[in-house]
Amino acid sequence: MAAPAVVRAGATGNTPANDPAGEAVAEWSATAVATVETDAKRPVPETFLWHAFVSTTVYNAVVGIRGGYAPYRWNGHAPRSASVPAAVATAAHHVLLEYFPASKSRLDTALAASLAKVPQGRGKDEGVAFGERAAAHTIASRKNDGRGAQVGGASSTDPGPGVWRPTPPAHEAFATAWMGRTKPLMLKEPRQFRPGAPPSLTSARYTKDFNELKSIGRKTGSTRTPEQTDTAMFFSGNMHFQEALRDTAARRGFGVAEQARLLAGVNSAMADAIVTAWDSKLHYRTWRPITAIHEAATDGNPATAPEPSWEPLIVTPPHPDYLSGHATVGGALTRSLTMLLGTSHIDFRVRSVVTGTTRTFAEADQYNRDVVNARVWEGIHTRTADTVGNRTGQRLAAWALTRYFRPAR
Q1: Which end of the chain is more exposed for a tag (fewer CB within 10 A), N or C?
Q2: Residue 104 maps to which CATH number?
């Protein structure tokens, strides 16, 4: 299989041509990114939740007027005469303002610009009113959903072999542990797709994972090729997923309902993947490779040798190994794309926040392969945490998207 194409970052088409409603969906997707990531600087993984909240609200505002697809956990409908752009702008504005009041100036300015494009009259008034209803529904449905709650047992004061503990250099506490106890978007509960336990410390699988990481994931003296290092760095941080989804919809000429559905379906699957991964991290609390390699003398496995000075290619994030969040999200991303697009030929163009380059993944399997490998090559996840996570993300997306965002009967 050919390697994914790599190009320099640059603006890509983000809106279906000559469609004011589609333009509104794309513009408010971009405004959500600016609000959540630029203004509020919310960290990954919680950004997935916020984008899911906004995109599902916009989806409800669109299909409640245009029809075509079943609303998301709602039965709201508006007259066909209601303005879709007015509904979209109002819905997104109200949700974002509820959670990010510090961005009021940005959001109010964007709303005024959006509504100025809509002719005065009954349709505009109906659209604004319906957008308000859609936002109110989302806000009410997400009250007391576990966001930001204190989670007991996230850390251990006396961890034994195999148990997670803060890692160098900062030795930070378990970040965003509450994600593992947050109400999912589509799943019944966070543990619904929790996989079985990771390999025991004396197993052949653990030994293989350990020795692969020790050799290829190290910062200096690694067996990585330059191409493998490039892929590792591409996936070493977040991706511009919202930009990529807008680009996918635009290049495929999606109408507004299809566009809103793509954003809502993929964002909801990725959000549930993060909740699932964090549930597993909380439940199993497995140590990271850097700890495993430093503390190998305590693991009871004669085939693993300690190396106290070993460092990974990138700094280890402050949460346990199993499951890999990036790999679990990748599985949910690719499976939701293949289901919503109706093909495994996803032709997905996504830009890396860290490297600034864009890669095109023609097939879903290409993305899954690279995100799994990358987290091993970075030295921060075992291959088992990646492969099980990726399969779990695919399974949960397949389950969820047979139940949500379906064509209307």
Answers
A1: C
A2: 1.10.606.20
